[in-house]
Amino acid sequence: MVRRGWRWAVVALGLAVLVALPALVAALPADDRDLSAAELRAQVVASEDVAFSGYAISTGGLVLPVSDALTGVADLLSDQTALRAWYRDADDWRVDVVTATGETGTHRDASGTWTWDYADQRASRGDDPPLALPSAPDLLPSALGRRLLSEATDAELTRIAPARVAGVDAVGLRYTPADAAASVSAVDVWVDPGTGLPLRVVVRSADTDVPALDTRFLDLDLSAPAASTTDFSPPADSDITRDQDLRDLDLGRQERADLPSALAGLARRTFDGVPDQVGAYGSGITVLAVSALPGRAAGSLRDQLSRTPGAVVDDLGVRIAAGPLSLMVAGTSTRDGGSGTYLLAGTVTLDALAAAARQIQEAGR
Predict the structure, then answer these.
(1) In this structure, are 76 and 218 located in the same domain?
(2) pTM, to two decimals
(3) Quick check: is 225 in a domain?
(4) Based on the domain organization, do 29 and 170 belong to the same domain?
(5) Structural domain for 102, as ranges
(6) How many domains does the chain have?
(7) Gene3D superfamilies from the entry (predicted)?
(8) Fewest CB atoms less than 10 Å from the CB: which of 34, 196, 260, 347?
């Protein structure tokens, strides 16, 4: 009996060591490099064609009140996602989401993406639209780090202490948004100094110590994976569908949203393929999207947001914050005497949402 108890104690200790190993390795001292913040950002932006394969974990700290249509996005931003990646270049990669019940793989080629559900034997084809909801491949540290730093200015960047990530002495970079409307307080990125590849990204908001998002590689191989690993053709007997993107959504019958050229101090931007009813504002990590809502969707979404703890309900509409992400349903009058409803969403403060809603109301009058 004593021996059996001793053996189980050894097993328990071994499991504890395995679970703690990534954290213990990350705590080891890391060597720094003599690189300026601007030089490090330039390396990150230029790392799009760095080949690698690896295993990553993304942990989201947001709790979003969403409809069934957005359940997948809410899971990505509020739960832990395990990712295996094989990356040859920007148009040739594969990312598998690993769960207890199976895997779902996304394969990128020159024409778009294939998403393959192993359990259901179902494939869907996407064509890389200008507007799309976040998906698991977007959470890879390499992709997220490049995207978030792509529009950061030199004045918004500082160096931070290095850290051990996936066995690499990764150098640290902090992006602190300068916009007064920003709800993100800082983005910390740790980078492989040899390739510029982001290895860990932590997104923080000022109102909590819990990161809104923490994604990191646990294992990394910087050799190019085989082309056969990333290639995909759906089996002949599989069920094939087309991915829905935001261009497929019914944004109402309005020909054009009557939106100003700036909202809450953020300038409006234009993108090819984006409907006129959608206004995109800001840059870098501080962005705001505004869309006209059809009446049948506006009522249910307004009710859902108003039931969320901490919701602000006033004459402008209803608005909530989930970490650095803010949502608002706002009503306004139109020039022909009618009324309209808008959805405002982005990484801005609740005060910025209120300011934007007032400007939209004024433009409508």
Answers:
(1) yes
(2) 0.83
(3) yes
(4) yes
(5) 20-242
(6) 2
(7) Lipoprotein localisation LolA/LolB/LppX (2.50.20.10)
(8) 34
Amino acid at 177: P
Q: H-type helices in 27-128, by residue range?
A: 37-45, 71-78
* Mean pLDDT value across residues 21-31: 55
Distance between CA atoms of residues 179 and 177, nearest Å? 6
C-alpha–C-alpha distance, residues 104 and 91, integer Å? 19
Strand partners, 180: none
Q: What is the mean pLDDT of residues 236-252?
A: 65
Judged by DSSP in three states, 26 sits in helix
Q: How many CB atoms lie within 10 A of CB 309?
A: 7
Instruction: Give the integer Cα–Cα distance in Å for 51 and 195.
Output: 10
How far is the C-alpha of 64 from the C-alpha of 71, rounded, in Å? Answer: 9
Confidence of residue 170 (pLDDT cuts 50, 70, 90): very high
Reported as type and span, the H/E element at residue 34 is none
Closest to 168 measured CA to CA, from 54, 92, 83: 54
- Tell me which of 211, 242, 273 is where a domain ends: 242
Q: Is the pLDDT of residue 246 over 70?
A: no
CB 144 within 8 A of CB 215: yes
